[in-house]
Amino acid sequence: MHFADAKGILSAQNGMNVYRGCTHGCIYCDSRSRCYQFTHDFEDIEVKQNAPELLEKALRSKRKKCMIGTGAMCDPYMHCEMQIGLTRKCLELIDEYGFGLAIQTKSDRILRDLDLLKSINRNSKCVVQMTMTTYDEELCKILEPKVCTTRRRFEVLEILRENGIPTVVWLSPLLPFINDTEENIRGILDYCVRAKVYGILCFGIGLTLRQGNREYFYEALDRHFPGMKERYHSKYGYAYEVTSEHNARLMQLFRAECARHGIVSDVGALFSYFHEFPVLEEYEQLSLF
Q1: pLDDT for the residue 281
Q2: How far apart are CA 109 and CA 78, in angstroms?
């Protein structure tokens, strides 16, 4: 872990990352890709120590309230957050200035800030997104080794629901020959139905591999799934999009189950939902509904 002063904190789409890098150790992580131009080891977290100051300046200068997004590149609730608290400081500012929040994580550490999430949701809008890829707990510990398992994330979703906070699950990525199975999809969908999530994002059954994350992924396959790397090489070569041979069937299952349970699954609709800052009266009616 090292500290740095950032030049800015909000993107053109009002997204932010207060950390750069990650310690969750997920074997498929796209953020390791060389195109993101990391100049330090991925696990050597860069802490943007001036993030709260930059965020406050940015929020003060905005003419209209909007949704602030975080967690798209680096999880805001890594281990270091519990020591440093930058995510919490930024959430306090979002709450103080009356902005909305769309936050994405794999970690149950988000419950530390439940008070702030509730306050933001009460005064504007808060959407919590959680990634769920692997129903089998032992397999989850291999694929996502340094973060809470899917069962615990389901419990977090239930707690958020009980506190009136809408949730969306990212069902991605799903790894060919490993967890691209009907049993896995149905297990995760069952969690989502029971937690009454607002929506599920799924871009297809598969993953993306490019320089940087491909090498890390293949090394992990050699450690945990002997012979699996060769299967990937044989079928996909060096393709960027690695699509499961079961994609059509499993996506049909996914869409049918979402429709049956009233869960939003349209990607465009969900991204619009993340970015739409509500008219307060309308949002209160939707929350009650």
Answers
A1: 56
A2: 8
Average pLDDT, the chain: 95
User: Can you give the pTM of this predicted structure?
Assistant: 0.94
Q: Rg for the chain (alpha carbons), in Å? A: 19
pLDDT per residue as tens digits for the range 60-81: 999 999 999 999 989 999 999 9
| Mean pLDDT of the 142-162 span | 98
SS3 category, 227: coil
Task: Give phi and psi for 47, each to the nearest 5.
Answer: -100, 115
> Are residues 151 and 137 in contact, defined by beta-carbon separation less than 8 angstroms?
yes
Quote the tokens at residue 102: 């769309």
Instruction: Report yes or no: 206 and 27 within 8 Å, Cβ to Cβ.
Output: no
Euclidean distance between CA atoms 86 and 102, whole angstroms = 16
* Residue with the two structure tokens 């940015």: 58
**DSSP states of 73-91 as a string?**
SS-TTSTTHHHH-HHHHHH
Q: Decide if pLDDT at 284 tops 80.
A: no
- Name the amino acid, one letter, at 17: N
Nearest alpha-carbon partner for 217 in 202, 197, 198, 231: 231
Q: How many of the other CB atoms lie within 10 Å of CB of 95?
A: 22
Which alpha helices (DSSP H) does the chain contain, by range?
Answer: 51-61, 81-84, 86-96, 114-123, 137-143, 150-162, 182-195, 213-224, 228-236, 247-261, 267-275, 280-288
CB 172 within 8 A of CB 26: no
Overall size of the chain counted in residues: 289
